[in-house]
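Can anyone check this?
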Amino acid sequence: MVKSRILIVDDEKNICRSLELILASEGYLIQTAGTAREAMVALEKNRPDVVFLDVLLPDRDGLLVLNDIKALDPDIQVIMISGHATLSMAVTATKAGAYDFLEKPLQKEKILIVIRHLQQTQELQQQYQKLQEQISYDYQMVGNSEAMQKMREQIQRVADTESKVLILGESGTGKELAAWAVHQQSPRRQKAFIKMNCAAIPEDLTESELFGHEKGSFTGAMATRDGKFLQADGGTLFLDEIADMSLRVQTKVLRVLQDGKFERVGGKDTLEVNVRVLAATNRNLEEMVKRGVFREDLYYRLNVFPIIIPTLRDRKEDIPLLIQHFIEKICLKNNRKPVQIAPEVIRTLQQYSWPGNIRELQNIMERLIIMAAGGKIEASSLPTYLQQPGSSVGLFSEKIGLKEWREKTEREYIRQSLDHCGWNISETAKFLGIERTNLHKKMKALGIQRLES
């Protein structure tokens, strides 16, 4: 653990010396100053992490020096010390940004407790900052194509409103990234972004997951639990795969969208939340409304501002940027040096139809990076179905309709993924970025079965 650099500012030499001995014995790096002027010179020369600052200095009020320090660098933590402290003085210092206020005579145990707590707080803040940077990187929408620019403009228009957004697009296009972008550009950005995949939760648990439950409300409910709506209070709730929600749960969700009120499962108290709901699906909700499997009133509540995510085949000019992004991301994740990629590989990847969209490209890039020999991805490393001449246009050799073409490409991609994962359904679902139940449904719908040898 790296020890903090500490500046002690006090005109009483014995106080400076005592503090220096206590903190230096713990491994902290110490410098001292006897006046406000000396303190500011020290701050400019060697920026400390923490300052112990006396309230009464011979050349300037310590509270004014506190303001000077915070103006110079808001991240420097200041602990005020005084032999004549008042409650009013402590309140003023805290409002000005002081971390703590200690009274003289200073006690060793108190000093060490405060500085240790401070360092722990700083480390947590640094970890949080790194996590935020990682999240922003992971949720980055890459691409400068016309389709992406148009989508970004839509996100920018709706983000700072309270309107509900329905995000539409094929599997693997990045609907969650769009939802995150809306949240990050909204006034709710400092509040929670809670997501729930409606297809991933068994139907009998969906209601509890969304609204929470009371202790003993059903078998296994050992304690009262908050649901997603309460967790997202003040922030944003992203409901992915909204089309998989049952009609019974749809009715309760509609009520929350109307007045923000609901009850926990097994509860009598009515709870109220302030939540912005974003929803996403890869299915045709209008058609589902006509078939009576999705509530029409809920559809209109959600579909205030639709955003359509472009497929990767509709923005192939973004593929080189996406390739570079995935190389950096995957190599960083696996502690590997960034690999080079042969131009013919990029050309081949740009010619492919990408039925699995960006998720498929990311999966292929991860495989290519693992297999890269000598730090370079060559055409020989490409999967067989991409190496074959005309593989990218083979599906166009027959005169077939759009629906049949989609089914054929999806069937081919899922079968290739199953082969890659040794027909392990859990691993294949993870590889494809979908739920096991969804994979089973797709395999059944597309007639995919393992051929026994």
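Reply from J.R.: I decoded it. Residues 25 and 83 are 24 Å apart (CA to CA).
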